[in-house]
Design a protein that fits this description.
single chain; alpha+beta; six-stranded mixed beta sheet; 5 helices; disordered C terminus
């Protein structure tokens, strides 16, 4: 959470294994999808967290379940308030599930699901045409 709050994309991505898979679903403001490998995961964080001027993310309801000595699962809720140059003021609630594996002497995320149960964006909610997504080419695709 500290790397997310300080908008440290490389710090966030350092927790993922090179073959990790992250899925964002639900009310994502146009960012639903599966992101495989650290290059894709870095891109999704760079285009979201990297476009913010401030982020405050609070974690709650943390639960951990040990599967084996080399695998554990974690679940928690993130409540996030951010100011984005693309989306305006963002207020989100995300249910997170993570699978962690012990690899080469350290814990790494191997699989992760971010289920956005709430995503409010001042610019997207206002229907601002330039703010439909952090990927401008998707706006063109939406228009046909």
């Amino acid at each position: 959470m500290q790397d997310l709050d300080t908008r440290n994309v490389d710090g966030v991505v350092s927790f993922y294994s090179p073959t990790a898979v992250t899925v964002w679903s639900g009310q994502t403001g146009g960012l639903s999808g599966m992101y495989a490998g650290t290059d894709s995961i870095r891109l999704i964080y760079a285009t979201t967290v990297g476009k913010t001027t401030s982020v405050v993310a609070n974690l709650s309801n943390f639960a951990e379940k040990t599967i084996s000595s080399t695998q554990t699962n974690a679940t928690f809720v993130i409540k996030m308030l951010a100011n984005s140059t693309v989306a305006g003021t963002v207020n989100a609630t995300i249910d997170v599930q993570q699978a962690w594996k012990w690899v080469n002497g350290g814990w790494q995320i191997s699989k992760e699901n971010w289920a956005y149960v709430k995503y409010d964006s001042s610019l997207i909610d206002a229907g601002m045409p330039s703010s439909a997504t952090t990927f401008p080419q998707w706006k063109v695709m939406e228009a046909g």
